[in-house]
Records
---
Amino acid sequence: MFNLKMCTFDTFIIHLRLIAGNCVSLKMVKKVTKIGVLTSGGDAPGMNAAIRAVVRTGTYYGLEMFGVLRGYAGMVDGDIIPMESKSVANIIQRGGTILKTARSKEFYLKEGRQKAYNHLVKYGINGLVIIGGDGSFRGAQAFSNEFDIPCIGVPGTIDKDIAGTDFTIGFDTAVNTAVQAIDKIRDTAEAHDRLFIIEVMGRDAGYIALHSGIATGAENILIPERKTVIEDVIKGLAEKERREKLVNLIVVAEGEEFGGANEVARFIQDRLPQQEVRVCILGHIQRGGSPSCFDRLIASRMGYAAVECLIEGRHNIFVGILNNRMHYIPLNEAVKKKQRISEEWMKIVKILSS
Ligand code: F6P
C-alpha cells in the first residue's frame, strides 16, 4: 500500500490510495483558501490567544481570514467579519473572547445549519476552526457530515472534559483562579475554626475540583466521577474534630451527585451541629481573567496546528496535545470519549489529607 499526494491545478489535492493495484478510494478535497474562526460554548481564558494564532497563521500562509461572531449563532445569522493580523493585536493577554460566544439552539436544527452554510458560501469560506467544548464539536460534526466545509476542533473549555488532549485551553487559568480563592478562604476558615464547603465549576466533570482541591490541601474532594459516600465524609470530619484539626476545606464539583455544596453543607451541619459550616460557590470568576502562560502557549500551538491541518487537507480533525506533542484524532472520536480520572489521583487525595 502506498499514498500518493498530488497537487494538480491550484484548487485540488487528489489523494489516491492504491492497494495491490486496486484503487480503493479517490477523494477530491477542495483547497482551503478562506478560513472562518469562531468561539463557541462557555468562554475560557486563552480563547483570544487561540483566535490570534489561527488568524496570524492563516495570514502568514496568504489565506483570507474571517471571524464568526457569537459562535454558531453568528454563523446562522451571517454575523461574519474579515480579520487580518492587526485585528488580533493586543489580545493574547485578555480573558473572554473578542469574537464573543453563545450556545445556539438554531444550529441544532438542520434548517439552522443550512442557513449557516449559505452564509459561509456567500463569503467564500471553505474551512472552519471551532474553538470550544464537546457540545461545539458535536455541532461541528453534524455540520461537516452535511456540508462540504471541513471543520477543525480546538479544545477551549475550563472543564477539561474532552478526550484526546491532556489539557484544554482555559483549564489551567481556571484552576489557578480557584486555588487563589481557596487559599484566601483558608485564611478566614482558620481564623474562625470553621469548615468551608467550596463549590467549583466543571459541569459534569471533576477536574477543576480535583486539581484545585489537591493543590490547596482540601480534606475531601467530591466529584461526579466517583460516588459520594457522605457517611465517610462525616466520619473523617468527626475524627479530625477529635484530633482538634480545626481547618477543614471540602471542595465540591458542581456536578457532584449529592447535590452540590449547599446540600453537602446542610447534611454535615445536621450531623455535626457543633461545627460552624460555611459555603462558598466560586462561580463565574473561574471563567474570567488573564490567561496563564500555560494556556497562552497551548492556545498558540493548537491554533497554529488547526490551520496547518486545513492547509494539509486533514479535515474534520480534533487538535489536542498529549505528552506535550500535538495529537490529532477524528472529530467524531473526540466527541464520543471522555477523559478518565485515574485511581492514583484519588489515592493521593486520600493519603495527603489524612
Ligand atoms: O463549560 C464551562 C462552564 O463554565 C461549566 O463549568 C459550567 O457548568 C457552565 O459552563 C456554566 O454555563 P453558563 O455560563 O451558561 O451558566
Note: The chain is about 40% helix and 25% strand.
---
Amino acid sequence: MTGFFKGIQQIKYEGPASDNDFAFRHYNPDEIVMGKPMKDHLRFAAAYWHSFAWEGGDPFGGRTLDRPWFGDSMEAAKLKADVAFEMFQILNVPYFCFHDADVRPEGNDFATNTRNLEEIVDYFAGKMDETGVKLLWGTANLFSHRRFMSGAATNPDPDVFAFSAATIKTCMDATVKLGGENYVLWGGREGYETLLNTDMGRERAQAGRMLQMVVDYKHKIGFKGGILIEPKPQEPTKHQYDYDVATVYGFLKDFGLEGEVQVNIEQGHAILAGHSFEHELALARELGIFGSIDMNRNDYQSGWDTDQFPNNVPEMTLAFYEVLRAGGFKTGGTNFDAKLRRQSLDPEDLILAHVGGMDACAAGLKAAVAMLEDGKLEAARDARYAGWDAPQGLSLMTSDLTSIAARVQSENINPSPKSGRQERLENLINRYQ
Ligand code: XUL
Ligand code: CO
C-alpha cells in the first residue's frame, strides 16, 4: 500500500438513507435491474489521465496538485500505477482506461516511448491479475506533444503521419496484451485552425487511410473488441473532422467503415456541439454505431470542455434511457472522463468525486429502467406514430408523388394538427426520479 488514500476503506453500498459520505446510496453492484446486475449495466471505468496525470493547471496558472508520482522516471510511473490501482479498488470500479502518455515517461524518440510503454504494460498486467480490475479501452495521445500541433493523421508532414501510425500500433498492441475490450481514437488535433493553410481534401483522405489501417490491423491480430471514434466539435482545433455523431457517421460512410467502427460519446462533447447527450446517444443507436460513453458534465455557460464529474440525475436518466434502448453496452461502458476542480487538492476529493458520479449514474439507470418497464413513455411515442403502422401509412413508404397526390385529392385528405404533449411527457419523466 502506498498510503496515499490513508484511512479510506473500500466504498460500500449503504442505501439512500445513509449519512456516510464514503458510501454509495444508489450504486449497488450486484442488485439485479432489468435482468442483470447493476455493475454489468454500467460497466464503470476510471480514467487514468484526469485522476493521475493532470496537474491542476488552467490557462492562467500551472500545477496546483501535489502528487508524489509527478516526475518523468519509470519509478514515478510505477508509483502512479500503484496509487491508481488502489483507487480502482477503493471505488470497486471494474475497469480503467488510459492513453500511452498518461502511464509512461515521455521519451525522446519512438523506440524509448515504446520501451517505456511495454515496461509499464507488464507492470499493469501484474496489478490487473492481483486486483481483477480490467481494461475498458486503451488509446494513444496524439495531441499533447508539440510534434502533433498540426495534427496526427491529418498532418501536412508525412513523417508525423508515420509516427502516429507507429504509435497507434504500439497502443493497440498494449491494449490487446492487457485484454482491453475496445480501442479508442479521439482526434484531438485532427482538424484545422485556418483554411488559408489547409488542404481539407488531403487531410480527410489521410484520416480515412489511418482509420482503414487501424481496422485492418485489428483483423490481422484478431482483436475482437470495438474500434471507437470519440466525436468532439472544437477544442483543441477550431474545425474538427469528427464534430459530432452525424459527422463521424458521414466520415465512416465515405470510407466504407460504418460496419467496423462505433462511437464513444462524451456528455461534454455533445454539449459543445450544441446537442444534448441523449440526442447523440439516440442518433448513434439509430445509425447502428453506438459503442461506449465518456461520462462527465460540462458547464453550460463557459463554452469549453470543463470535464466535471456528473451530478445531475435527471440528465443521467435520459442518457441511460437511450443506452438501454440501444440494448445496453456490449464491449462499451461508462468511463469517467472527468477531473477534479483545481482547488480540490485532497486524496479524498478524488474518491468522493467518483462516488458521486457513480451514484448519479446508478440513480439515473434505476429511473431509466423504471421508465422503460412502466412503458408509458414508449406507449405515448408509439401512439404518436400509430398512423404509420396502419395500411395507408405503410403504403406511403412505397408510393410515389403521383399516386399520393391522386389519393390526397380523391379522399380529400385534410390533416388536423395534434398536440405533441411535451409538458405532459416532461411531467411524467419527473415522476420516476
Ligand atoms: C478529450 C477527451 C479525451 C478522450 C481520449 O476531450 O475526451 O480524453 O476521451 O483521448
Ligand atoms: Co473523452
Note: The domain at 12-374 is CATH 3.20.20.150 (TIM Barrel).
